[in-house]
Amino acid sequence: MDENRMLISIIVPVYQVLAYLPACLDSVLAQTYPAWELLAVDDGSTDGSGAVCDAYAKLDSRIHVIHQSNQGVSAARNRGVALAKGGCIAFVDADDRIAPDYLDRLAADLTAHEADMVCCNAFEETGQARSDYRCVLHSRVIRDRETLFRDALIREEQYGFTVWGKLIRTELVRQIPFPAQRFGEDTYFMLCLFQHVSTVVLDSYPGYVYARQEGSAMLQTGRHDLSRCMGQLASAQLLFRLTRDMSRSTRELAARHYAAYLHAAAAAAALAGGACFHEQRGRLGESVTELKQDWKCLGFSDRVKLLLIERFPIAYRSCIRLLQLLGRT
After folding, report:
1. Is the pTM of this model over 0.85?
2. What string of DSSP letters covers 267-291?
3. Which of these, 50, 73, 53, 79, lies nearest to 64 by C-alpha position?
4. Is 153:257 a contact under the CB 8 Å cutoff?
C-alpha cells in the first residue's frame, strides 16, 4: 500500500445480488488508487452472495467480509462504517460498478479543495441500455451550506439524494447513523450530512455506474407506495426544519416542498385503505400543524388540501378515491 495515500474505506452492503456482485467486486479490484479497503457486509444473503465475498477476500487482503443476519441496508452500512479504518468512505451498491480511476479522481478533488465531500456523475444502466445519470450538471465547489439545501429543494442537481457516487470524510459519516426506514434512507442521511459539511466539490466526471434492477425498492409499487411516501415525507420534514434559520426564499421553497410530500403521503394512505389512513392520521396531522408556521408561503391549492387532511379527513379520503376512479391520481 502507498504510505503517502489516504486510506479509503469502500462499504458495500450485500444482499441477494449473486448475478451482479462479481462485476462490482472486479471494479473495485481494478482501481488505480491502491490505498483502499473493502468492507463487504453480507446482510444474511441466501443466494450464495456471501460465499462470493469470501472467495474474493482470499484473492486480496484488502477485502474484508462481515456476515450478519438480515437487518436491512441501513444496518449493513452502519456496520461497515463502525469498522472502517479509512480517512474517507465511499459507498457502493453491490449491483453497481465504479470506473477504474473513480477513487483516484474523487480523492484528488477532495485533497485539492480540502473538502469534506466530493460528488460525481454516473451512468445509468437498465438491462442493455445505458444513459447519462446527470447528478451533477456543472463542476463547482460549494462552501455555502444554504446552497446545498436550495439545490435539494430545487432539484436541478440530484447529487444530494444518494450516498453512492460520493467520497465523504469518515468522521462526518460517523456522526449520522443511517435510519432504519425502508425508503428514503439515503436522502435522510444526506440532509443530515449537509448540516456538518463546510466544503463540497461537485465533479461532472461520470465515474459511477448505477444499475437499475427490476424489482428494486425504487421500482416497486402497490403496497410499498405508502412506505415510500412516508419515507419521503420524513425527509421533507427534516429539510423544512433545517432551513428555518435561512433566507425567506429558501424557507418558502422548503414549505412548498413539504406540503407537496405531505399531500402525496396522505393520498397514498387514503388509497391504501381506511385502516391505513386512520393509522397515519396522527403523523399527517403533525405535519399540517408544523406547516402552519409558514402558511403564507403556500398557495391556495396547498392550503385547501391541508385543511381537508386536518379537519375533514373522511371527505379528503373520498375525494382521493374518486380521483383514482376518474384516472386523475
Report:
1. yes
2. HHHHHH-HHHHHHHHHHHHHHHHHH
3. 53
4. yes
